[in-house]
Amino acid sequence: MLNIIETNLQFNGNKTIRDLSTIKRIILHHSGVSVLQTVETIHNYHKNSRGYAGIGYHFYVRKDGNIYRGRPLEYVGAHAYNHNADSIGICAEGDFNLETMSDVQKNAIMELVEYLRGVYNISSVQGHKEVCATSCPGANFPLSEIVNGTITKNETVQTTKSIDEIAQEVINGKYGVGEARKQSLGSLYNEVQAKVNEILLGKKTTVAKKSNEEIANEVIAGKWGNGQDRKAKLATAGYDYNAIQKIVNQKLR
Known about the structure:
This protein is of the alpha/beta class.
């Protein structure tokens, strides 16, 4: 389950309610500016300057990979003229005519699209420029990767390598340093870093292993990915996938 940040934005009466069963497709956008913008900034602009009920996009994905809820899905969007009634609008922060999207942001959009496809039985994912006369979501937007599900994730997200092998790659400089390394390694960071310390310092660092209950909560929060990615990551970290998935299923009933 994805970690979608709820925003509790206030919309005015200029909106149309729809049945969620009418949702058939996803349309992808970029914000079109390089400066950082919060979801609240876009909401206020659409509401006060464009005359919309509020933000026209249903989801807003920032450069750091955080996903924010925009317009509720039961409200028809205001993001693709004449194509709003049956679509979900997803906007990526940035100007991808000028910028290149980071793996963190791509992965977040990929996971959001995968999740929405499953929930609403969506078969079509399009770029804004495919349905309207616009350059959005930008020439550098990784549209085909996201649409076709061929996004290349950080290796540690899907790796089946051992902790020893990943630690050696860290020592060889593959995953950077500091926060960059931590972000690249994700949930494997603590265990890999302990192994790196052991190799470099000649002493073993004990990493407290989390309980299956704690890991199940992290799975539900979206920290361990989905499908085979989740299974591989849990196995690499030394956890029993079946036991954890059982807890997850019980919690989500």
